[in-house]
Protein backbone atom coordinates (compact mmCIF):
# COMPACT_ATOMS: atom_id res chain seq x y z
CA UNK A 1 0.00 0.00 0.00
CA UNK A 2 1.35 3.42 -0.81
CA UNK A 3 1.68 6.40 1.46
CA UNK A 4 -1.01 9.05 0.93
CA UNK A 5 0.44 12.34 -0.38
CA UNK A 6 -0.55 14.19 2.78
CA UNK A 7 1.53 11.75 4.88
CA UNK A 8 4.68 12.13 2.77
CA UNK A 9 7.47 14.51 3.59
CA UNK A 10 7.50 17.63 1.33
CA UNK A 11 10.24 16.22 -0.90
CA UNK A 12 8.27 13.02 -1.49
CA UNK A 13 5.01 14.88 -2.10
CA UNK A 14 6.67 16.99 -4.80
CA UNK A 15 8.17 13.90 -6.44
CA UNK A 16 4.79 12.88 -7.86
CA UNK A 17 3.13 9.48 -7.78
CA UNK A 18 5.12 6.39 -6.95
CA UNK A 19 4.77 2.91 -8.47
CA UNK A 20 1.86 1.19 -6.77
CA UNK A 21 -0.16 4.41 -6.55
CA UNK A 22 -3.50 4.07 -8.30
CA UNK A 23 -2.65 7.13 -10.37
CA UNK A 24 0.41 5.46 -11.92
CA UNK A 25 -0.53 3.80 -15.23
CA UNK A 26 0.33 0.13 -15.62
CA UNK A 27 3.41 -0.85 -17.56
CA UNK A 28 2.22 -1.52 -21.14
CA UNK A 29 4.42 -4.63 -21.23
CA UNK A 30 2.52 -6.11 -18.27
CA UNK A 31 -0.81 -7.74 -18.95
CA UNK A 32 -3.06 -9.06 -16.19
CA UNK A 33 -5.04 -12.26 -16.40
CA UNK A 34 -8.22 -10.21 -16.06
CA UNK A 35 -7.29 -8.13 -19.12
CA UNK A 36 -6.64 -11.31 -21.10
CA UNK A 37 -9.99 -12.80 -20.06
CA UNK A 38 -11.73 -9.62 -21.20
CA UNK A 39 -10.52 -10.44 -24.73
CA UNK A 40 -12.63 -13.63 -24.63
CA UNK A 41 -16.19 -12.40 -25.06
CA UNK A 42 -17.39 -15.66 -26.62
CA UNK A 43 -16.21 -19.25 -27.02
CA UNK A 44 -14.32 -18.68 -30.28
CA UNK A 45 -10.65 -19.74 -30.23
CA UNK A 46 -8.13 -16.92 -30.51
CA UNK A 47 -4.46 -16.96 -31.40
CA UNK A 48 -2.01 -15.29 -29.03
CA UNK A 49 -1.28 -12.59 -31.62
CA UNK A 50 -4.96 -11.58 -31.82
CA UNK A 51 -5.27 -11.33 -28.03
CA UNK A 52 -2.08 -9.24 -27.90
CA UNK A 53 -3.40 -7.00 -30.68
CA UNK A 54 -6.75 -6.47 -28.93
CA UNK A 55 -4.95 -5.52 -25.73
CA UNK A 56 -2.30 -3.47 -27.51
CA UNK A 57 0.31 -5.44 -25.57
CA UNK A 58 3.41 -7.43 -26.36
CA UNK A 59 2.85 -11.09 -27.25
CA UNK A 60 5.31 -12.38 -24.63
CA UNK A 61 3.39 -10.78 -21.76
CA UNK A 62 0.08 -12.02 -23.15
CA UNK A 63 1.51 -15.52 -23.60
CA UNK A 64 2.54 -15.62 -19.92
CA UNK A 65 -0.97 -14.62 -18.82
CA UNK A 66 -2.55 -17.16 -21.19
CA UNK A 67 -0.35 -19.97 -19.84
CA UNK A 68 -1.17 -18.97 -16.24
CA UNK A 69 -4.88 -19.11 -17.07
CA UNK A 70 -4.36 -22.51 -18.71
CA UNK A 71 -2.66 -23.83 -15.56
CA UNK A 72 -5.67 -22.63 -13.55
CA UNK A 73 -8.05 -24.49 -15.87
CA UNK A 74 -9.70 -21.31 -17.17
CA UNK A 75 -8.40 -21.54 -20.75
CA UNK A 76 -7.52 -24.44 -23.03
CA UNK A 77 -4.81 -24.48 -25.66
CA UNK A 78 -5.11 -25.96 -29.15
CA UNK A 79 -2.20 -26.15 -31.55
CA UNK A 80 -3.38 -25.17 -35.03
CA UNK A 81 0.04 -25.73 -36.58
CA UNK A 82 3.70 -25.55 -35.57
CA UNK A 83 3.57 -21.75 -35.29
CA UNK A 84 0.04 -20.97 -34.13
CA UNK A 85 -1.52 -21.67 -30.75
CA UNK A 86 -5.24 -21.09 -30.32
CA UNK A 87 -6.72 -20.32 -26.92
CA UNK A 88 -10.33 -20.85 -25.90
CA UNK A 89 -12.31 -20.86 -22.67
CA UNK A 90 -12.23 -24.21 -20.87
CA UNK A 91 -15.50 -26.12 -20.97
CA UNK A 92 -17.13 -26.96 -17.65
CA UNK A 93 -20.50 -28.68 -17.37
CA UNK A 94 -21.55 -27.51 -20.82
CA UNK A 95 -20.71 -23.86 -20.14
CA UNK A 96 -17.80 -21.68 -20.92
CA UNK A 97 -15.66 -20.71 -17.94
CA UNK A 98 -15.83 -17.13 -19.22
CA UNK A 99 -19.56 -16.92 -18.52
CA UNK A 100 -21.41 -17.60 -15.30
CA UNK A 101 -24.21 -20.10 -14.68
CA UNK A 102 -26.78 -17.70 -16.10
CA UNK A 103 -24.72 -17.19 -19.26
CA UNK A 104 -23.58 -13.73 -18.21
CA UNK A 105 -20.08 -12.62 -17.28
From TrEMBL:
Keyword line: Coiled coil
Coiled-coil stretches: 52-79
InterPro entries cross-referenced by the UniProt entry: WH-like_DNA-bd_sf, WH_DNA-bd_sf
The keyword Cell cycle belongs to this UniProt entry's keyword annotation: no
Region entry Disordered, spans: 1-29
SUPFAM superfamilies according to UniProt: Winged helix' DNA-binding domain
Compositional bias of kind Basic and acidic residues: 1-11
Name this polypeptide is given: MarR family transcriptional regulator
Amino acid sequence: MSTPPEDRCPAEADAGPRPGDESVPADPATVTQEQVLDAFTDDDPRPTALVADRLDADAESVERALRDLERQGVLERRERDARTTLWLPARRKGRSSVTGPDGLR
